[in-house]
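Troubleshooting log. The previous structure file for this entry was overwritten by mistake, so regenerating from the original sequence record. Sequence copied from the archived sheet and checked twice against the printout by T.R.
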Amino acid sequence: MAEIRFQVLNQTNGQPSPNLDTLSGSGLAFYGASAGSSVQIGSYQDNTNVANADGSTYKDATNNIKYLANTYPSGMAVLSETGGSEHTIGLSGIKTFQSTLGIEFGHSTPVKTQNVQLRIYDRSNINYPASGVNTKVAEIVNHNGGSYASQGSTGVTSNVVGSGDAFWWGEPWPTEYVTKNYYTNSSGEVFLNGFQGTNTNGDSRLSAAGIAGSYAAVGGTGVVVPLLDSPGSGQKQLQRSEVAGSTGMIWPKWTQYVASASQQTMFGLRNSFGDGTNVANIEKTYGGTGIDTHHTWAVALSASPLSIGSKEQYGLYVSLEYL
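Regenerated output below.
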């Protein structure tokens, strides 16, 4: 039997909290300066809590990752850990267990996973964008958790600066660092994001809405977020030094779109990974290749309202293939 569960990751070992192993029957709500308070239009949340559908009833706080800017040089955020400190950091410096949300796929027998896709939608049709919300999303893969000041300073192993996303999906990617505005997964699916100066989300429903800020968001058919293949339980397959069936270590997901010449500037890497323009390199950026009964992903979520009122036409949907 196959099952997808959504979890809060707030323990130092990167495992779900024993009290919040699953968000079944509830979800996450984004608040302002305090839990239960509104987020101002055009601003991003300062608190994230487990809550009911309309956010009127909330309980446990979760890690809060607030979007700040598209570069730091990697995507800039304020990380407020549950019961911990608050600090500004690049996406690549956030540890996996500090993420907003954990996504776990479980099966009764060991399997591989591929073509994993995350959508933000209106809770009615997965191809329709959420109503009245601008959402930024990033996949988090970092077991070292180096901060910006030390990202890459110890060498070029893939987890020094994080092997997930370097920039936010739904926010225009900086042309000074990025060679292409898309990621291609192992199934050949292409996932688009906008460059600076462009309409990031090409969904016609957002363009028709004419609401300032709606054009730069994850949602609808415009921006769908890819997640890595076969991470294994606790992402253990993403910590392997070799990619099965290929040569060399797993390469970060962001090397598909970050220019090789920019990696030294962004992360202080002593050697460049390259930009993933050839087949051998791209194969290293797809994720893990192991077989497991459980596979775990971690994501950062940040939201900003485009209008007044609670947002109930707002959901998260994950699909994948397993074999």
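The first helix runs from residue 204 to 209. Archived copy saved in two places this time.
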